Amino acid sequence: MHAAGKAEPAVTPVAGNASDDRAAFEQFVGxxxxxxxxxxxxxxxxxDGRDATAEALAIxxxxxx
Length: 65
Known about the structure:
The chain has helices spanning 18-44, 46-64. The chain is mostly helical. The chain has a domain at 34-65. The protein starts with 17 loop residues before the first helix and ends with a helix.
């Protein structure tokens, strides 16, 4: 945990070229996506949970660029 009580990021951003960033994001999605899908599906139902996951990951992809 960080000093402010926030969890550390799953993937630490590394300064470098875009392909490194893309690989890190793809690793994050591969590791976190299934858990996020299960959590959101449990909270909102299967279809809405899948939609929410897709939107969250798309926003993450957009925010990186």
